[in-house]
Amino acid sequence: MINHFFTNSKTKNFMRTRSLFFSIAAFLCCSFTLQAQVNVNFGLKGGANFSTFIGSEALTEETLIAPHLGALAQITIGEDNEGFLSYALQPEIVYSMQGAKIDNQKTVLSYVNIPIMIQRYVASSGFYIESGPQVGFLVSAKAKADGISADIKSELKPVDFALNVGLGYKFGSGFGINARYNIGLTSIDKNGSDVKNATISAGLFYVLGSGGE
């Protein structure tokens, strides 16, 4: 069934993309050595994914809507002169259902994603922008059509590398809203077809112990 979405192509250079991912992660983790006390607060997040496949050989027509749910740690790495949060490093672990639809068929992929986000807050407003790399581990993969479900996990790569960009707003209570675009950097097809994940996620989060920032 996966061939409804993929067509054949030569294998892409996986190792080069993996090196790029780790280079980005190392840069983000080492580029923000600001003079501020480092505080760590933990939280939860959840919401909806609007996902599809992209690439020259991705034959998709509709967006798949599915949930995501996870945990986060917000690490303060910068504050302004008035003590408001300026920069934060936010690693997460998120269970994410992704995939795509075409006609009456759909492919549903479940990942455990680990993004590492750098967040830049706009003064004391609560608004922020963010970006960062992500690695995802494939948990399950199903192709479904006409009430029949087939396991296609063996046809897909077990690890997916991606890049995130997003924005959000965090209230003083620790609650917040977030929207993020996730674009795959590597093909997910073991046969080398040019098919990548692309997901827009939107949802809510709560950071414990962060009220009053």
Automatic annotation (TrEMBL):
<feature type="signal peptide">
    <location>
        <begin position="1"/>
        <end position="36"/>
    </location>
</feature>
<keyword id="KW-0732">Signal</keyword>
<dbReference type="Pfam" id="PF13568">
    <property type="entry name" value="OMP_b-brl_2"/>
</dbReference>
<feature type="domain" description="Outer membrane protein beta-barrel">
    <location>
        <begin position="35"/>
        <end position="189"/>
    </location>
</feature>
<dbReference type="InterPro" id="IPR025665">
    <property type="entry name" value="Beta-barrel_OMP_2"/>
</dbReference>
<protein>
    <submittedName>
        <fullName>Outer membrane protein beta-barrel domain-containing protein</fullName>
    </submittedName>
</protein>
